[in-house]
Amino acid sequence: MSDLDSNQNRRSFLKYLLSTSIVGFFASVLYPIVSYLNPPKQNEVEVSTVLAGKISDFEKDSGKIIRFGNKPVLVIRTEKDEFKALSAVCTHLDCTVQYKKEMGLIWCACHNGKYDLTGKNVSGPPPRPLEVYQINKQGENIFVSKKA
Amino acid sequence: MKKIIKNFYDYLDERLHLEDLVHFMGKKYVPVHSHSLWYYFGGVSLFFFIVQVITGILLLFYYKAGPDLAFESIQYIMSKVQFGWLIRSVHGWAANLFILSAVIHMFSVYFEKAYRKPRELTWISGMLMLFLGMGFGFSGYLLPWNELSFFATKVGSDIAGAVPIIGEPMKILMRGGPDVTGATLSRLFGFHVALFPGIFTVVLGIHLLLIQRQGISEPMHFEQLDKKEKKTMPFFPNFLLRDLLLWLVMLNVLAILAVFFPAELGHKADAFGSAPEGIKPEWYFLFMFQSLKYLPAHILFIEGEVLGILLFGAAFALWLIVPFWDRKTARGEQNKLITYIGIFVIIFIIVLTILGWVA
Predict the structure, then answer these.
(1) What interface predicted TM-score (ipTM) does this complex get?
(2) What is the domain extent for residue B43?
């Protein structure tokens, strides 16, 4: 092998070494930054049942939003004195829905999405029904729990 | 006094060779033709950006980020701090006027086809700044932590989350978790006052450098004229003084708007309250927001809003790279199709914005 050849081999080897170490350098700088920006997973408190309140807390033909762990849940006392609980998170774009007395429906103010009282999406852009929760009455108390 | 200024100039000139710069400025000319008016909107956008930097820094002295403090600190700025209402209102109005003048600037460049070779990179850098401007708007909207901004941010970030594959991680990155919480406020505050201004300043520097390097674009019909027939105006001082005069007019417009239509604050955000009626994003997002409203829940096998977002994304991408696919203009020929597309886009935006406004 001539001197020139061995010099070129050495040079291309050094170039290879340098370029891989540059990639390695950027990877080692960027990795911690990207990981830092990714928020740590919070352990959500597993809630299975919450006390929504007393029957007298709910007026007839009205709705109220309660906390179910980190999520809002809409509890409705219907005209016929039935209790219903549904997720208050609109399946369209994450807004919080409300009970609209005049319409007798669940309504989302953001994009005019409508659901009936069983949670079924009946009008507007929502693509899916609302999740339904279970209602249990124990004496005067109303409990809301996740459906099994 | 004159002698002091002269001595100071000589001192700088000896070290920095200012003569070269003065010579360069003296050689700069701005074309004069029937569309010259549009040249001013770039400068006007720059003016509003400067106003934003100054008022933004002033607001930082009193604003406190955090779900328990943000709303209250703005209340304090609006009611207790001397001229606090004025600074915040000017910041709000200048933000809107910045977007408006940047959009006018962008459309004038588009219709004049000033993006054609050799100014492709100037167009790209300008579009990046417009996107960043919208990012400023989106991130700044949440900072007062009121009902309207809380739900607008929920909707806006959820729209980003609907993009296939990258949407969900992008949403988490934006919100600092799965929901809009105090973590989102901290993040958007960081974007608004540190990340975006940093990137914007670099892109703005590149944009201005490119304009200095390539000179001001001439319309196609003007370019073909004989050198003797071309009417021009010296940049320094003629154009610059007109620019400054317009800046002064804009400052007055800003003051009038801020005084007679001060920024509102609304009600404090409640993560467990229902979305109030009349949720609307900033006006420049309204046409997209309204279009998404008209889409049905499902179109064939795909969710309506996902399809809408993908279509808007594709349209923005095509708009961004127009200098590279408009080959006809690049060859120096008139391309009417580009003009028709532009007119269609303007009509679409105006009609849907009005529909969104009155809805």
Answers:
(1) 0.77
(2) 28-267
